[in-house]
């Protein structure tokens, strides 16, 4: 607790909390980010800390989860947290832990402190953590992992995430590449202390450390994860068959305590929505990693299942390429938004499991979300705008829908119907998810998955700032960029929210996106499974779970 | 016939009525038929296609299929009523009492079982003997039917045997059951004439040996004359006449029988002396069976009140001779014995076609990538003969003789490998149709064998004639075309409205007439007729032959007539070429071919011809085996391997010289013509009934 | 016979050659490229570009095809396994061996690690289905064709035609609704894993039923047609008129001849069962070959598609060979040449 | 040397000459099987043709009221799908797609396959070898694999489905036509045409092709049925025609997730598919039986 009181950010935060500029939830989240322990943060916020779901004690037994069993060999280059990392997650752990409420807490890092300028982060490695071969877990292990994910040749998506504050652009053999900005960027203080010296201020470093490719591997693994791989986690992988199943056995000597189950099996149920339902109905599996809105009604009808959900900032952005006709005209883009009633999309595509959005990619789940007047559906207004833009007879375009998110198509279909009334003709073209990622920054109109991110400004910065790699729409607005930069450097929540409100307005008026909904992620589990809670990014933590006989 | 069943009848058919039932109702195939066959007798049933003779056979075997049934009457075999038999006793009758020899031995044998397996089933089933005994028995029977190397045959599959061998196997199979009655359903149809003769010899021999009763069915009066004691003539399901064989041929009493006999080519007449008397019209469908006499509508003596009201009763016309005709005594009043005689064309001296050393060799496969040896099939070799204007040149030979190949080269459907083929001054040997000028094409046209394949089933009868007229530039406008088509239909005696019918609605004879009209569309100088009548019933055949002769008499075309039927050739040819395995054995004017000196092969052919006259006795002369494959031809004389008069190695090693005999007669043989001339004629009349001409 | 085998072998190789090129050419139309697929959606474009160049993906189709062929024949090392790329792609068999299908970009594993277990699973499914389809179709086909037009014949024919008209996805879906959801008698998916309390044999029932229903309908009709034709043949009449009882006629004389025509068709079903089970595998989440091909095609995993195509084609052509040989055995009139 | 064969034995006597079988089409009513099949096809063709005139919801219209209870009701006779769209309307409008794409695809395959088969059969030799070899290669492909690979790569659209059907079906058609051509090539009416120097094209298309029509009509019906299955399978595998326009296979697929609670969503589209396929299969069967009766 004493450490917490010394935290340089504490004063600002408590002041904001006291002034009412920051609500309690935001306070706790920020306090934790800057290294204040969750217990202290909750105490200071005056919120009783929910007892974190504790392991149920070693009851033994088998847990079977339906998923897709994909390739898992290279955790540092995983491309999606939903499937692949859920196998390794039970073996390989992360330095921090962001809970379903967005509060980041210590994990393999026991605690941390950050300098007032948010550039120097000092992390303390938890003592007593042992690899599955009995070896102690130390700072060297952490540094090996950090350096590895930032090595361009490895190809980890951590590069994209940490590039802004850890990497420099360089040219290698005439090709754009990156390198760590300074030799001292990753610094070993002692065997149990690691320091990150950032190029620019960054508040979200601990959250980034929970990003799914940041799994902590043993250096001997050379970055390969397979049956028998060393890990600090509660399980070891004993069996793996691609596309079929993965079997994980509980460790007896896990540092975190007793593991609720003996064995976890992840069973591949395929992409077919009905196969997963059938597997649950016949009790071949206890639950799913996550379920699709298309499965909701059927699963709800199965009496032996519990429903779990959590609101997220996950969304499918229908983005328009601002440098291609007719979307080079902001009036057309706005008309596209005005023709949509987000409530309809919410009902049709998500069965109401989510919230209506306001076309600016900032979610009420984000702490820096600012409430501005929502865009009302206005078909006449949309038509008028189109006419002003020089399209009195409406416009037409083609919308690419990657087919790996079933609800995207429902969303698109709902939108198409509404656009039709405004004289906008949109042709849907489904595309395999894999193929979409090759054209996602090129097609005139596409639907892109944006997973939950803890802050609204993170989303805006990743996707809409001029020239950033993931700016898929080619959107470029100097005012927007300037306000965004200002917001990122503003720790004062009230001020930041004011800035975010401006950003949101720009998005609604000028932005490149139609964004009707944020979804809740949800799943169903057998009632015999205890201790489960839905994580917004579909992560599973099997050691917390137990299965009643 | 209608007499009460004789007590000694082995098989008694008593007022049998057979029907076929279909969704549209029952059709009567046999209205009311009674026959009694006595034990030890050989009874022949003769009639044209569709007359119900095979139906009758199947009724006797109790095997009419799901749609057929015996609607009335009884079939009593050896005291048991077949028509009322339960399956078990029916099986017993089939297995032990009454066996059948089928028309097409290729189809009658199971292709996937060895001969042995198919044979031993019979004794194993019906005599309960073990496989070994049964096999021994089968072997014995195969020896009886004169199959060489019976043990090897037992282990062979049907496709490894020749047609004649298969028919012997089928006969053996029938005999294995020790039947009292043997039913033979056209057992030699489709076999070469020399093979046919050998099979008929066998039938006669076995009959003597086992004393089996025979019921022999055939459309071929010559065959019936050879093997039967008593003959019944069927028309449209009715037995119109029944008599002992000599009586029937000597004194036919029914108009149909008489007409039928008048259509059969005989070896003692030809086109100069006789004209066939075809039967007008065509048989009605079973559903359209006329009232009264079934032959009425086609009969010159039809008298409606007498013939067209009630079923015609049988009347006795002599001892054992019955006839179903109310006017049989008045026959001479309406039956012309001599039709309008058409003078045949007179051959000119102008040469229309001449082949010189014409050869056709097929390369049988370049085996894949040089594996296996490449083989040659010599279809024609060194053919040299000619045909003059207005002449009918017949080419005769058994299957594999190469006569059709020559026809196809001549018509332009194939080209020759070597030699010359001069037609009207042009060498066409290497000019298949697509290289010939339209004039050359029009000059040589062809009539094909199979009436069912000669017209495109998708187009009307007039269509291809119209195309030919257009192509040959004879008519272009619709009107001209229609007029010309009408004219051609008139020429072949077809009603012009048939031009708009598709072939499916035409009879075989009508189709062949259309084909002739088509061939004459371009006014050909040379007509190639490849067995144009061999697929037709004898009465239809007669009409087509008459037609060809008439047309030829009118336009003087030369006809190259390909045939296997020596009697028919005797009737219509001016000159004859006899071919064997691709080579000419003998050629000359028609009369010289049918009298000594004979080439040994021609002699054997003539000895095998079934003569529709039981009073003619043929010299007994049979060939061993069957024509060898044209792939491995002997070096010397092609016929040496089967020649009954083979001299020795010289025949095998040296090609025979082409010896000239009088009248442009040529015989290719090592035996001098003078020696060949010292043989007795093939045909001898045993007892000459009044009025019969001397056979040549 | 030696010539025959050489001939068939040459035609097999030629077919595989042509087909693999065809597939290679078709995948050209697929959006995205191997580099992007290898690195995944979140890799930076610069990373993708580097790999793109290193793999020589800018080369013309023919060059890339030759390279792929070289890897397959063991003449060239698999470029994706080059440690310099830092991709962690390593085939325990080495990077240069005959039959190296390369690396699956979808599964991020050597194709040889992925493909054979799928094939085995599908072979099990197909084998059981085949083992049922053949006797069932023969029995019903013979029964129906034995007496053409009889009540039994009509019933079997109508059932056959209905069965072939119900696509596998429809029958699969309704069998699940009935036996899994409503009755709870059978498991709804077939992961071939007994952990969920359902023994593996119980997991095979529904997929096999779906396949048998769809396929047997077709084969029954083929057999029936052939049988009916044979029953009209003269040699059957010969057998009947020899006095053989009906049973002997059918068993000894008809069945073998009736098998000749459908024999090829029956063997072709192996072909269908190996690859055509994709729908069934989808419905039941069966970890098989068909589903793998679908996944690979959707992802555009060229190496896997090529491998699967070659294997499926080889099976198809070998089946054809077996059917030709069997045909010759059944039908003594045929000589292999 | 063969003579007419008097084989009136087991079968009824040969058809009377003056009453030869009329064309297949006119005899169709004789086959109950064919009539049932034709009835099913006509039923769907009629519905598809009349679709714009029927008092139906637009097929893509989402009835938000129906989301809560999508079951069949007076408003939506066959219920709605889980996006609130009227299933009856989608089935009828979907029939338009199926009934145009499937026959069109089969027809296109015939346009390619027939000339190839005719050429292979008529010319023989090298032409035959080349055409047959290419056909063999394509026919060796397991058909579904070929469809999946093709459609997954060139994308699902009506045109591409037609292309895929042409590529996969044309070799089969060519093989059938080749066989039928070989049967006829040596028949005398072809020789007769050659003897009046008809061109090869004329012989192939005017003399040979019309006589192939019996087996080809049967094959065409079967192929349309099979194409409907294929389109359904592609839809079920997620390679169906692009949304939101109704595609039967996709409808089944979308409904399968709900099968346990809302069976109507996949039941009705399945019945529709089965009925239409059955229609074509029955018609094919009837036509075949009729042509065998000749």
Automatic annotation (TrEMBL), chain A:
It comes from the Bacteria. Residues 105-451 form the Solute-binding protein family domain. One of its GO terms (molecular function) is peptide transmembrane transporter activity. One of its GO terms (biological process) is peptide transport. Pfam families: SBP_bac_5. It is found in: Periplasm. GO terms for cellular component: ATP-binding cassette (ABC) transporter complex; outer membrane-bounded periplasmic space. Transmembrane segments: none annotated. Belongs to the bacterial solute-binding protein 5 family. This is Diguanylate cyclase. It comes from Alsobacter metallidurans. The lineage of its organism: Bacteria, Pseudomonadati, Pseudomonadota, Alphaproteobacteria, Hyphomicrobiales.
From TrEMBL, chain B:
It is a peripheral membrane protein. Residues 10-261, 353-606 form the ABC transporter domain. SUPFAM superfamilies: P-loop containing nucleoside triphosphate hydrolases. GO terms for molecular function: ATP binding; ATP hydrolysis activity. One of its GO terms (cellular component) is plasma membrane. Keywords: ATP-binding, Cell inner membrane, Cell membrane, Membrane, Nucleotide-binding, Translocase, Transport. InterPro entries: AAA+_ATPase (IPR003593), ABC_Ni/Peptide_Import (IPR050388), ABC_transporter-like_ATP-bd (IPR003439), ABC_transporter-like_CS (IPR017871), Oligopep_ABC_C (IPR013563), P-loop_NTPase (IPR027417). One of its GO terms (biological process) is transmembrane transport. It is found in: Cell inner membrane. NCBIfam families: oligo_HPY (TIGR01727), PRK10419.1 (NF007739), PRK11308.1 (NF008453). Belongs to the ABC transporter superfamily. This is ABC transporter ATP-binding protein.
Automatic annotation (TrEMBL), chain C:
It is found in: Cell membrane. It comes from the Bacteria. Residues 119-323 form the ABC transmembrane type-1 domain. Its main location: membrane. PROSITE patterns: ABC_TM1. It is a multi-pass membrane protein. One of its GO terms (biological process) is transmembrane transport. Belongs to the binding-protein-dependent transport system permease family. This is Peptide ABC transporter permease.
From TrEMBL, chain D:
Signal peptide: none annotated. Gene3D superfamilies: MetI-like (1.10.3720.10). PROSITE patterns: ABC_TM1. It comes from the Bacteria. The chain crosses the membrane at residues 33-54, 98-122, 134-152, 158-177, 220-241, 261-284. GO terms for cellular component: plasma membrane. It is a multi-pass membrane protein. This is Peptide ABC transporter permease. It comes from Alsobacter metallidurans.
């Amino acid at each position: 607790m004493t450490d917490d009181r010394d935290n340089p950010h504490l004063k600002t935060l408590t002041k904001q909390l006291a002034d009412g500029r920051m609500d309690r939830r935001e306070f706790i989240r920020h306090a934790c980010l800057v290294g204040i322990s969750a217990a202290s943060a909750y105490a200071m916020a005056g919120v009783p800390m929910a007892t974190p779901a504790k392991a149920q004690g070693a009851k033994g037994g088998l847990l079977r989860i339906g998923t897709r069993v994909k390739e898992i060999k290279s955790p540092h280059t995983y491309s999606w947290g939903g499937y692949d990392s859920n196998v390794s997650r039970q073996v390989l752990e992360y330095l921090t832990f962001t809970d379903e409420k967005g509060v980041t807490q210590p994990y393999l890092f026991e605690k941390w402190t950050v300098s007032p300028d948010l550039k120097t982060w000092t992390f303390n490695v938890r003592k007593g953590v042992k690899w599955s071969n009995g070896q102690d877990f130390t700072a060297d292990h952490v540094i090996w992992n950090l350096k590895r994910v930032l090595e361009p040749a490895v190809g980890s998506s951590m590069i994209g995430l940490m590039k802004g504050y850890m990497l420099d652009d360089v040219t290698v053999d005439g090709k754009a590449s990156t390198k760590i900005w300074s030799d001292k960027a990753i610094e070993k203080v002692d065997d149990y202390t690691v320091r990150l010296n950032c190029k620019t201020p960054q508040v979200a470093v601990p959250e980034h450390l929970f990003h799914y490719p940041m799994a902590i591997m043993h250096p001997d693994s050379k970055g390969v994860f397979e049956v028998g791989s060393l890990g600090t986690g509660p399980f070891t992988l004993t069996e793996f068959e691609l596309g079929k199943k993965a079997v994980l056995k509980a460790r007896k000597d896990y540092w975190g305590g007793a593991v609720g189950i003996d064995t976890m099996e992840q069973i591949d149920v395929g992409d077919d929505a009905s196969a997963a339902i059938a597997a649950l109905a016949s009790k071949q599996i206890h639950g799913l990693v996550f379920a699709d809105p298309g499965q909701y009604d059927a699963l709800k009808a199965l009496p032996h299942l519990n429903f779990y959900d959590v609101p997220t900032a996950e969304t499918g952005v229908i983005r328009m390429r601002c440098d291609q006709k007719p979307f080079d005209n902001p009036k057309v883009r706005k008309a596209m938004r005005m023709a949509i009633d987000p409530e309809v999309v919410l009902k049709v595509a998500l069965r109401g499991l989510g919230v209506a959005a306001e076309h600016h990619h900032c979610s009420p789940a984000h702490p820096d979300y600012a409430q501005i007047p929502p865009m009302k559906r206005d078909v006449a207004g949309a038509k008028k705008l189109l006419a002003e833009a020089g399209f009195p007879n409406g416009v037409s375009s083609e919308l690419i829908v990657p087919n790996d998110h079933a609800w995207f198509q429902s969303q698109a279909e709902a939108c198409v119907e509404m656009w039709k009334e405004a004289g906008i003709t949109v042709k849907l073209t489904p595309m395999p998810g894999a193929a979409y990622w090759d054209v996602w920054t090129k097609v005139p109109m596409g639907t892109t998955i944006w997973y939950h991110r803890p802050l609204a400004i993170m989303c805006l910065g990743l996707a809409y700032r001029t020239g950033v790699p993931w700016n898929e729409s080619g959107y470029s607005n100097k005012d927007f960029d300037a306000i965004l930069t200002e917001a990122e450097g503003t720790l004062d929540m009230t001020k930041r929210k004011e800035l975010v409100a401006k950003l949101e307005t720009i998005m609604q008026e000028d932005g490149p996106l139609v964004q009707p909904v944020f979804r809740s992620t949800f799943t169903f589990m057998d009632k015999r499974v205890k201790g489960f809670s839905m994580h917004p990014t579909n992560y599973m933590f099997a050691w917390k779970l137990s299965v009643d006989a | 016939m209608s007499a009460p069943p004789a007590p000694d009848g082995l098989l008694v058919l008593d007022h049998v009525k057979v029907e076929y039932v279909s969704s549209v109702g029952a059709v009567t195939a046999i209205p009311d038929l009674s026959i009694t066959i006595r034990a030890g007798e050989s009874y022949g049933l003769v009639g044209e296609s569709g007359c119900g003779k095979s139906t009758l056979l199947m009724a006797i075997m109790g095997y009419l299929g799901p749609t057929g049934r015996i609607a009335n009457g009884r079939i009593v075999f050896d005291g048991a009523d077949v028509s009322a038999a339960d399956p078990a006793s029916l099986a017993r009758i089939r297995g032990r009492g009454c066996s059948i020899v089928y028309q097409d031995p290729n189809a009658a044998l199971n292709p996937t079982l060895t001969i042995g397996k198919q044979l031993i089933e019979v004794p194993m089933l019906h005599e309960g003997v073990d496989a070994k005994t049964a096999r021994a028995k089968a072997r014995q029977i195969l020896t009886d039917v004169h199959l060489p190397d019976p043990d090897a045959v037992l282990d062979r599959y049907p496709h490894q045997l020749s047609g004649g061998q298969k028919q012997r196997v089928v006969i053996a199979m029938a005999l294995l059951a020790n039947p009292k009655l043997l039913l033979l359903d056209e057992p030699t149809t489709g076999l070469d004439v020399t093979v046919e003769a050998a099979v008929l010899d066998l039938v006669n021999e076995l009959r003597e040996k086992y004393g089996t009763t025979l019921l022999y069915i055939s459309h071929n009066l010559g065959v019936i004359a050879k093997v039967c004691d008593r003959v019944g003539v069927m028309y449209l399901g009715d037995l119109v006449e029944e008599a002992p064989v000599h009586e029937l041929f000597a004194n036919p009493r029914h108009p149909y029988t008489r007409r039928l006999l008048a259509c059969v080519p005989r070896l003692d007449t030809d086109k100069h002396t006789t004209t066939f008397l075809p039967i007008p019209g065509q048989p009605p469908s079973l559903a359209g069976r006329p009232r009264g006499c079934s032959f009425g509508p086609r009969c010159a003596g039809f008298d409606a009140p007498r013939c067209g009201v009630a079923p015609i009763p049988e009347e006795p016309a002599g001892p054992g001779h019955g006839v179903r005709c109310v006017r049989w005594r008045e026959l001479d009043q309406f039956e012309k014995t001599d039709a309008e005689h058409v003078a045949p064309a007179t051959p000119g001296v102008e040469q229309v076609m001449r082949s010189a050393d014409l050869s056709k060799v097929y390369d049988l496969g370049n085996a894949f990538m040089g594996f296996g040896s490449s083989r040659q099939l010599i279809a024609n070799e060194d053919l040299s003969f000619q045909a003059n204007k207005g002449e009918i040149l017949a080419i005769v030979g058994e299957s594999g003789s190469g006569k059709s190949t020559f026809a196809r080269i001549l018509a332009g459907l194939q080209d020759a490998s070597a030699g010359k083929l001069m037609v009207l001054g042009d060498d066409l040997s290497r000019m298949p149709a697509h290289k010939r000028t339209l004039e050359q094409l029009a000059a040589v046209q062809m009539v094909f064998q199979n009436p069912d394949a000669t017209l495109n089933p998708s187009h009307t009868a007039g269509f291809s004639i119209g195309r030919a007229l257009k192509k040959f530039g004879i008519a272009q406008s619709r009107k001209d075309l229609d007029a010309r088509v009408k004219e051609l239909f008139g020429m072949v005696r077809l009603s012009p409205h048939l031009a708009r019918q598709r072939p499916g609605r035409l009879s075989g004879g009508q189709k062949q007439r259309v084909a002739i009209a088509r061939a004459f569309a371009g006014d050909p100088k040379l007509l190639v007729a490849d067995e144009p009548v061999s697929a037709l019933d004898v009465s239809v055949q007669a009409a087509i032959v008459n037609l060809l002769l008439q047309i030829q008499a009118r336009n003087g075309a030369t006809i190259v007539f390909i045939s296997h039927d020596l009697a028919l050739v005797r009737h219509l040819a001016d000159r004859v070429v006899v071919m064997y395995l691709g080579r000419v054995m003998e050629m000359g004017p028609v009369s010289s071919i049918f009298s000594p000196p004979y080439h040994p092969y021609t002699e054997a052919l003539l000895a095998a011809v079934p003569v529709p006259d039981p009073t003619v006795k043929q010299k007994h002369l049979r060939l061993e085996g069957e024509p060898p494959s044209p792939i491995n031809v002997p070096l010397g004389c092609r016929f040496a391997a089967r020649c009954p008069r083979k001299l020795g190695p010289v025949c095998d090693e040296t090609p025979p010289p082409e010896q000239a005999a009088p009248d442009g007669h040529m015989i290719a043989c090592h035996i001098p013509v003078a020696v060949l001339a010292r043989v007795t004629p093939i045909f001898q009349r045993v007892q000459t009934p009044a009025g019969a001409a001397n056979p040549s | 016979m030696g010539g025959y085998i050489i001939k068939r072998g040459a035609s097999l190789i030629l077919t595989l050659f042509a087909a693999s090129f065809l597939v290679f050419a078709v995948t050209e139309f697929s959006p995205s490229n191997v580099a992007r697929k290898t690195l995944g959606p979140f890799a930076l474009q610069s990373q993708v570009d580097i790999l793109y160049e290193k793999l020589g993906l800018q080369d013309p189709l023919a060059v890339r095809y030759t390279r792929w062929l070289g890897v397959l024949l063991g003449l060239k090392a698999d470029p994706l396994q080059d440690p310099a790329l830092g991709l962690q792609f390593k085939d325990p068999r080495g990077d240069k061996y005959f039959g190296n299908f390369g690396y699956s970009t979808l599964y991020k594993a050597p194709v040889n690690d992925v493909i054979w277990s799928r094939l085995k699973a599908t072979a099990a499914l197909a084998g059981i289905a085949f083992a049922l389809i053949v006797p069932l179709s023969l029995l019903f086909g013979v029964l129906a064709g034995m007496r053409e037009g009889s009540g039994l014949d009509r019933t079997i024919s109508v059932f056959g035609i209905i069965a072939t008209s119900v696509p596998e996805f429809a029958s699969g879906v309704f069998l699940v609704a009935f036996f899994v959801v409503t009755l709870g008698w059978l498991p709804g998916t077939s992961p071939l894993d007994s952990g969920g309390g359902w023994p593996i044999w119980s997991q095979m029932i529904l997929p096999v039923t779906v396949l048998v229903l769809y396929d047997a309908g077709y084969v029954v009709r083929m057999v029936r047609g052939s049988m009916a034709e044979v029953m009209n043949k003269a040699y059957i009449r010969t057998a009947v008129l020899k006095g053989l009882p009906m049973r002997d006629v059918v068993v000894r004389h008809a069945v073998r001849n009736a098998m000749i025509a459908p024999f090829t068709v029956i063997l072709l079903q192996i072909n269908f069962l190996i690859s055509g089970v994709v729908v069934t595998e989808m419905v039941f989440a069966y970890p098989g070959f068909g589903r793998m091909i679908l996944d690979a095609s959707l992802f555009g995993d060229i190496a896997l598609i090529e491998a699967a195509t070659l294997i499926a084609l080889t099976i198809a052509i070998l089946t054809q060979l077996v059917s030709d040989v069997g045909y010759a055995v059944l039908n003594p009139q045929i000589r292999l040449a | 040397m063969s003579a007419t064969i008097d084989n009136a034995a087991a079968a009824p006597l040969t058809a009377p000459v003056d009453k030869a079988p009329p064309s297949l089409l006119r005899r169709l009513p004789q086959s109950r099987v064919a009539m049932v099949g034709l009835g099913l096809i006509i039923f769907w063709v009629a519905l598809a043709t009349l679709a714009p005139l029927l008092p139906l919801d637009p097929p893509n219209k989402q009835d938000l009221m129906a989301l809560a209870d999508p079951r069949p009701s007076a408003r939506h006779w066959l219920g709605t799908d889980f996006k609130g769209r009227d299933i009856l309307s989608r089935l009828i409008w979907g029939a338009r797609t199926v009934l145009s794409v499937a026959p069109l695809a089969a027809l296109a395959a015939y346009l390619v396959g027939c000339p190839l088969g005719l050429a292979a059969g008529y010319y023989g030799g090298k032409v035959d070898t080349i055409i047959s070899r290419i056909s063999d290669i394509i026919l060796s492909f397991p058909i579904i694999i070929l469809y999946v690979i093709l459609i997954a790569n060139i994308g699902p659209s009506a045109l591409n489905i037609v292309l895929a059907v042409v590529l996969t079906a044309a070799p089969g058609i060519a093989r059938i036509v080749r066989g039928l051509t070989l049967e006829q090539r040596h028949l005398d009416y072809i020789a007769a045409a050659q003897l009046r120097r008809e061109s090869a094209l004329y012989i192939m298309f005017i003399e040979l092709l019309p006589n192939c029509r019996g087996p080809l009509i049967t094959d065409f019906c079967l192929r349309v049925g099979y194409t409907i299955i294929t389109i359904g399978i592609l839809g079920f595998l997620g390679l169906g025609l692009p949304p939101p326009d109704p595609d039967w296979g996709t409808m089944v697929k979308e409904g399968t997730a709900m099968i346990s609670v809302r069976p109507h969503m996949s039941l009705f589209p399945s019945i529709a598919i089965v009925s239409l396929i059955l229609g074509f299969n029955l018609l094919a069967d009837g036509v075949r039986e009729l042509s065998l009766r000749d």
